[in-house]
Design goal:
The structure is a single chain. With 458 residues, this protein is of the alpha/beta class. It is 49% helix and 15% strand. A seven-stranded mixed beta sheet has the order 9-8-7-6-10-11-12, with helices on both faces. The protein has a five-stranded mixed beta sheet with strand order 1-2-4-3-5, with helices on both faces. Helix 6 packs across helix 18 and helix 11 crosses helix 12. 53% of the residues are buried.
Length: 458
């Protein structure tokens, strides 16, 4: 097996991947997030390409970087004032070598084709790492449900699904939720799908309500999974999560359940944040109050600080990375942890950083953290618990079963341990001990690439 990146073959493969990335940028202008996600993967693959020249001969990388299908469509709907609105819908079906396309729908004003392609590309490798038979895809719209009434959200979802339904199916493409798409939106989308197709096809969407096909532990899965992955990284270093000082960014579903699981394992969680700023709570985040403010009242994190009392301090416009910690868990959005933040974390003695969000750490920050010896869990591995539990929901739907919470959480824990061990062992196999980024990328790539070789020129 290969040992180092610097031999002649690895050097040649690295030059080839750089050339491929330049061509990808040329063919996909104005999509910086997609360019960044592709580069992060391509930069780590030289060792496996040197060891497996059949991947190069079959142009596997070129094929993986090109989506199998890109769908864009208009979504007309009517708001509460009777005004007609027109949004744009997307579904990028990236790779189905391992199974039906699987990946969430994001409703947010920032959504464009480049964002969806970056998320879909990441999803290929993330889904492969779970060991389950699911391909990679992603979708969404530039519609923002924040501040909209239930009736407005329903009308939008019905219009969105009226077009998207023709591309979906439990053996074809199975969306889930993401930012802006929770249980309410999944319900409206499923209702319209059922209405149009005249089929009760529970496995066509995941994240459903528990009474009509949803899975227990799905809501918690991404946050719980990231904490479990972090715990495994610390164990490899002879430490436990118990007693560690933890900062969490964000205050949405992923962040809330990250706080919940970290506290359950004995960590002291100091922070949460939103777009306005962050709260540092010296007594530790009050989970019940956080859930009340964010999940029930849909309020701001500043409301939490006002009601928490003297232990909590709200910093308007600040960043949680300024708070000294042992463990940092970015759980908000892409590129939120930059090089300056990484330097601050390293100076503060951070031991581990693990991504609950998708690509929240910039490439420069990742390099700094790895150089400093910080254990770094890339999102495609660390936050794969959400999609893994979605696939478990599909399994339950297929068998017409409903598992208890304990079984669903146990399956999640086993999958996350398996993902961690796969990444760790793969990095060691290629002479890169402790490099979870390389381990995740290579392991995910190998599984997809082998499937593509077996299936011919697809």
């Amino acid at each position: 097996m290969p040992t180092v990146r610097t031999d002649a073959r690895s050097g040649a493969r690295a030059a080839g991947t750089a050339s491929l990335h330049a061509e990808l940028v040329r063919r996909n202008p104005g999509e910086p997030e997609f360019h960044q996600a592709a580069l992060e993967v391509l930069e780590t693959l030289a060792p496996v390409l040197a060891a497996r020249p059949e991947f190069v001969d079959a142009k596997i990388l070129e094929r993986i970087c090109e989506p199998e299908r890109q769908i864009m469509f208009r979504v007309p709907w009517q708001d509460a004032t009777g005004t007609i609105r027109v949004n744009r819908g997307f579904r990028v079906e990236f790779n189905s070598a391992l199974g039906p396309y699987k990946g969430g729908l994001r409703f947010h004003s920032s959504v464009n084709l480049g964002i969806v392609k970056f998320l879909g590309f990441e999803q290929i490798f993330k889904n492969a790492l779970t060991g389950l038979n699911i391909g990679g895809g992603k979708g969404g719209s530039d519609f923002d449900p924040h501040g909209r009434s239930d009736a407005e959200v329903m009308r939008f979802c019905q219009s969105f699904m009226t077009e998207l339904h023709r591309h979906l199916g439990e053996h074809t493409d199975v969306p889930a939720g993401d930012i802006g798409v929770g249980g309410r939106e999944i319900g409206y989308l499923f209702g319209q799908y059922r209405r149009i197709t005249n089929r009760w096809e529970a496995g066509v969407l995941t994240g459903k309500g528990l009474e009509w096909g949803g899975s227990r532990a799905r809501t918690e899965a991404t946050g719980y999974g990231n904490v479990l992955f972090t715990e495994e990284m610390l164990k490899r270093r002879g430490e436990e999560l118990d007693g560690q000082q933890v900062v969490v960014s964000g205050s949405g579903n992923v962040a809330i359940h990250t706080v919940e699981k970290a506290q359950a394992l004995g960590a002291h969680v100091l922070t949460v944040s939103d777009s306005g700023g962050y709260v540092v709570d010296e007594k530790g985040i009050d989970l019940a109050l956080l859930k009340q403010v964010k999940e029930v009242e849909r309020g701001r994190i500043s409301d939490y600080a006002q009601r928490r009392g003297v232990s909590a301090r709200y910093v308007e416009g600040g960043r949680v990375w300024d708070v000294a910690c042992d463990v940092a868990l970015p759980s908000a959005t892409q590129n939120e942890l930059d090089a300056d933040a990484a330097r601050i974390l390293v100076r503060g003695g951070v031991k581990a950083v693990s991504e609950g969000a998708n690509m929240p750490t910039t490439p420069e920050a990742v390099a700094l953290l790895k150089e400093a010896g910080v254990a770094f869990g890339p999102g495609k591995a660390a936050n794969a618990g959400g999609v893994a539990t979605s696939a478990l929901e599909m399994r339950q739907n297929s068998a017409r079963e409903a598992w208890p919470f304990e079984r669903a959480e146990g399956e999640l824990a086993a999958i996350m341990r398996g993902i961690h061990d796969t990444c760790y062992r793969t990095a060691e196999r290629f002479g890169l001990p402790g490099d979870y980024v390389a381990g995740a990328n290579i392991a995910g790539f190998e599984r997809v690439a082998d499937a593509m070789l077996d299936q011919g020129l697809i």
